[in-house]
Amino acid sequence: MSTATSARPMTAPSSHAPRAGGTRRRSRTRTRLELTLLLAPALLLFAGFVLVPIGVAGFYSLYAWNGFGPLTDFVGLDNYVDAFSGEVFRGAIGHNLIIAALSIVVQLPLSISLALLLNRKLRGRTFLRMVVFAPYVLSEAVTAVIWLLMLQPGGFVDQVLRGAGLGWLVRQWLADPKIVLYTLFVVITWKYIGFGVILLLAGLQGIPAELREAAALDGATSWQATRHVVLPLLGPTIRVWIFLSVIGSLQLFDLVWIMTLGGPANASTTMATYLIDHGFKRYEFGFGSAVAVILFVICFTFALLYQRFALRRDTDGALTRAVS
């Protein structure tokens, strides 16, 4: 009896182990097959519309090619050297960086202030939100044409300033090299401020009202509750907004191209307008491809560094919450 009972536990695991192992292997194979079928279309599109064009641009950038005929004039890295040695391109990089810095310094506080205001219970709050967000719905081309007409000499902006007794502020808004970049930044702010406000409003909606109420019960003022409770919890949304704003500033093209073509005297040239001007208008496709690769490397490097040092704890926290 004892021998029979002791033998049963020894034979039972060996008889069921192959079935369990085979089931797990089939489950893993099925999961991998499902992931492959689901991800394959997206990966093919990503490769076809992102990776392949990047590789083609990198290949073209090694040639002095005007877009016609075969690629025969191999110049190596000369296009990159010529780009960085040119004063106009270095100035274009500086203009993009100025727009990015102004976006963080000006647009971010303005977006947070408007979002906090529109998050309160105000009469006509829905209408105010619509008014703030409406410019973002307009296309860049429509926005550029509207402001181009308003900023012309004697246009709507000049008439408003003169009517308000501020005629001494009237300038050649798009013809003065000293102020044209900042004029464009005003237009950019008017166009994109709505996106920042809506994004921050979504973040504010995710903050429990009980936290602010608890801070008020502890004697905190409205500003102290906002400073020490709301803004820290709004941090992940703010960091996402900064990332999108900087990337958009580095790739700025439409508004500048339509309103100034990068002028006057290259005072508003950006990397994208410089690329289009040389690559398509002057038929320097090899050189334009080099500029495109430089722009991609700058954006990609910023994205990696920002992900590593700013967004990592947000993504790690989201992953931890999803797993738990």
From TrEMBL:
The chain crosses the membrane at residues 35-63, 97-118, 130-150, 179-202, 240-265, 285-306. Keywords: Cell membrane, Membrane, Transmembrane, Transmembrane helix, Transport. Residues 93-306 form the ABC transmembrane type-1 domain. Pfam families: BPD_transp_1. It is a multi-pass membrane protein. It is found in: Cell membrane. GO terms for biological process: transmembrane transport. PROSITE patterns: ABC_TM1 (PS50928). GO terms for cellular component: plasma membrane. Residues 1-28 are annotated as: Disordered. Its main location: membrane. Residues 1-14 have a biased composition (Polar residues). Belongs to the binding-protein-dependent transport system permease family. This is Carbohydrate ABC transporter membrane protein 1 (CUT1 family). It comes from Lentzea atacamensis.
